[in-house]
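<context>
A single protein, sequence plus fold
<entry> Chain with its tokenised backbone below
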Amino acid sequence: MNTSPSSSAALPRIAVLATGGTIAGSAADAANTAGYQAGVIGVAQLLAAVPGLDAIAQIHAEQVASVDSKDMTLALWSTLAQRVNELLASDEIDGVVITHGTDTLEETAYLLHLTVKSAKPCVLTAAMRPATALSADGPLNLLNAVTLAANAAAAGQGVLVAFNNRIHCARDVTKVSTYAVDAFQSPEIGALGWVQDGRVEFQRRALRPHTVDAPFTAAAQWPQVEIVTSYAGVSRAAVEALVAAGVDGFVVAGTGNGSIHGAMQQSLAEAAAKGVAVVRASRVGSGHVMHNGAAKDDALGFVSSGTLNPYKARVLLLLALAAGMTDKAGLQDVFDRY
């Protein structure tokens, strides 16, 4: 599917929402791509660094936040989701682009993938190098994100991530490098398509329900869901401390196919018996975690995450618990479906 905006038609109206991150980062030395302060450059300056935007879309810009995305909060998620929904509900806006830090982009993207209630395009982008760096990647990523959001082919595709010329589904994408400009990949099944030099091409579509077909909303009050990791010699201490603190759910970054050390597994089973939700995911990086059925998961009160990594599994568990979905069979259906 290859389309581009018609030059004779009125330009699409795209809202660009800035939240901070490396794309808005600044360093004293142009050769320094690590020692910078994130989120200090405003959205107007970001847009001014991208030539040709006015030939692609009419831009409406807003500064929603100015944070290093490692410090992303659930409250900011709620604010961002609400603003995106308000903008996309308006006849004056045809699509939204969000600039974000790379550290938690995949989590924010998946949260929006399930809580945005519009078929209009919503695209996240970011950068691995600050705006002041030699060969900064932010301007081209932002240009491509606006190009994608302005393109009719992006409608109905759910929330997308435009990064290093590729188009990723928010559910699939993950950060795979600490430094490379191609730091985002969709490891199991690949990108949805690509965007380059004004051309947008999709090779496939996301099949799982999202956006208008998902029942979730960003919460005003979020449950407490924590991630714990299984590894050689792990103890019960973290699980027991979090249960005592009143945690509502756990996601386990297990080994292999979501397997859990015996000591931790026992403590999690005890937590599940007390009504705490427990989801098995894997720390491996790709693949899927199979539901083990009556013999194991059902007996222990566990849910399997399927193809979601631990961080995205936490997003889905947060949304499900916030919606009052606490039944184990119902939770497993949620993870199988979304």
Summary: The chain has two domains: 2-212, 225-337. The first helix runs from residue 43 to 48.
